[in-house]
């Protein structure tokens, strides 16, 4: 039930941004690139290509609305999941506005974030996070640092094929709970054409951690060699996203049981991608 609501909310937000009036036109961008999806504990590398669409818009009241939808096509030679369809999806949506300006460089913002991930080779069937929160940031132009605190809805469903071989039934594949999250982030200019953004984030249900995520992205302003055509104003981006999952909430027996197995034989994945990010002109 909640998964269907999240799916319709994703569609509604994207259509809302897409329908922006001309007077306050949205900024549309596209990404094209290649990737390696790594499951280190299985010594697995899955290569592929991806395409994404990004849109952002500032309303007349200076509220930022943004959305990103990515589709990835894998060459799944390792087949960690023997019944995996090698196409997967990742998207995120954000609404954000200023709450207070505490000084020339320090500001407090509110935000509502919605993240979605589906059908990875690491057996993530569906994942949704809906988190409103507060962002406290320090902006020194050449660099920025900040912290985000949020609380809301967390959902993670594991694909059934690998768990079935480890003694798990379909009704034990979902963890749906309220959760809090803390993110520390930083960004800096490394020269006239290169910038770096990093963040570390954890989700927690009040009893134990649910997920840890670490992201690092280098962006290079490639406009001087991507002049003309579709890629005008483009950036070349290297992004590394490492995710760790707490699989204990899915346990179907006590850890001291001689037949105990975690629901999956791995508990983390790393997604490395290189892509061109360029503006679309409609």
Provide an overview of this structure:
This protein has 282 residues and is mostly beta strands. The protein has two helices and twelve strands, in the order H-E-E-E-E-E-E-E-H-E-E-E-E-E. The protein has a twelve-stranded antiparallel barrel. It starts with a helix and ends with a strand.
Largest sheet: 12 strands, antiparallel, barrel
Element pattern in H and E: HEEEEEEEHEEEEE
The N- and C-terminal alpha carbons lie at a distance of 37 Å
In the sheet with the most strands, the strands line up as: 1-2-3-4-5-6-7-8-9-10-11-12
What percentage of residues falls in helices of 4 or more residues? under 10%
Coarse structural class: mainly beta
Q: Which radius of gyration do the C-alpha atoms yield?
A: 20 Å
Key features?
single chain; 282 residues; mainly beta; twelve-stranded antiparallel beta barrel; 8% helix; globular
What's this, in brief?
With 282 residues, this protein is mostly beta strands. Helix content is 8%, strand content 58%. It is built from 2 helices and 12 strands, in the order H-E-E-E-E-E-E-E-H-E-E-E-E-E.
């Amino acid at each position: 039930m909640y998964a269907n609501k999240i799916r319709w909310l994703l569609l509604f937000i994207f259509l809302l941004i897409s329908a922006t009036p001309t007077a306050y036109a949205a900024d549309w961008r596209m990404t094209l690139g290649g990737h390696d999806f790594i499951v280190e504990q299985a010594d697995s590398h899955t290569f592929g290509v991806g395409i994404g669409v990004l849109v952002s818009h500032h309303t007349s009241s200076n509220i930022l609305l943004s959305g990103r939808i990515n589709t990835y096509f894998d060459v799944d030679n390792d087949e960690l999941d023997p019944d995996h369809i090698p196409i997967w999806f990742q998207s995120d949506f954000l609404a954000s506005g200023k709450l207070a300006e505490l000084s020339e460089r320090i500001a407090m913002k509110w935000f509502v974030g919605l993240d979605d991930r589906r059908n990875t080779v690491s057996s993530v069937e569906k994942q949704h996070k809906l988190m409103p929160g507060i962002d406290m940031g320090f902006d020194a132009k050449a660099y920025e640092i900040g912290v985000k605190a949020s609380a809301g809805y967390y959902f993670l469903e594991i694909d059934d094929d690998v768990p079935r071989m480890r003694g798990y039934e379909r009704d034990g594949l979902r963890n749906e709970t309220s959760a809090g999250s803390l993110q520390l982030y930083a960004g800096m200019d490394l020269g006239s054409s290169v910038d770096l953004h990093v963040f570390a984030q954890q989700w927690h249900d009040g009893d134990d951690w649910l997920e840890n995520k670490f992201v690092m992205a280098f962006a290079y302003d490639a406009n001087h060699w991507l002049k003309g055509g579709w890629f005008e104003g483009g950036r070349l981006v290297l992004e590394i996203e490492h995710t760790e999952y707490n699989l204990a909430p899915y346990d179907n027996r006590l850890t001291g049981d001689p037949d105990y197995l975690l629901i999956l034989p791995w508990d983390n994945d790393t997604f490395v991608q290189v892509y061109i990010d360029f503006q679309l002109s409609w």
